[in-house]
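User: Fold this; tokens only.

Assistant: Input:
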Amino acid sequence: MAITTKPHRADARTQRPPFTAVVHSEWIKVVSLPSSVLALVGILAVGIGGSLFLGLTLESSGVPSVPSIERTIADVTVPMVVLGQIIAGIFGVMTIGAEYSSGAMQTTLVAVPQRVRMLAAKTLVTFTTVTAASLVTVFGAWAVTNPIYEGFGLGAPLTAPGVMLALVGSAVYLGLCAVFGLGATTLVRSTTTGSIIVFAATLLLPVLSSLLPFGLLSRVIRLGLLGNAGDAMGRVGIEGGPFLDLWGGHMSVGAGWLIAAVWAAGALVIGAAALRTRDA
């Protein structure tokens, strides 16, 4: 007599949730955290507000005698890059730091036991959210200020060489800063310490490096810093210039993209390694 067995259904607690479900869960966490929403609003405010201030005070501060698209685009991107990089980095810090500080990380790991998978979902949500907000900000800043600059013959149309890349690059840089903050906080498991690391990497170290004695070593250090890479990503590059000039201290746009990506990826890999080997 044949014996038939009823197939067992996998326990819901042991089932591996699809990656899309994990991403959706992380997205809900982000939009439900008031500090994260305020951070995105802050990027929008400092980016558009700062650029508009530079545009409105252009005449009183002195109109350049020679039209320069590089100068115009710098006025558009610099406010968002300089101030927004810290806000974006702290956004990444809060993405995981809030769970460590509240004790919710243990619940998260029960729902998604695959730790690296959970971190990958946080990374995707963090990067895309900050980059999207930054794209809206920088193109909004260009839209409200370019008519002002055109009135002085200093307009920078999107079709001009390097303009579109500079605008997109400045937004992607903020997304990478957020990923860097996420990776650093995964390592230190402290919102305060993670925020300090973000501030040091994006703003403090470039300032301190400028105080170093002039020499090859100081130029190499400055070229390798995250904040300086962001500056290169948000400007119109010099056509035909070197990729990375150690002697002259020049960093091309492409080099800026590479160095910023290395900072973000390095922090994320180190954080992921710590997440896999330590208790929650």
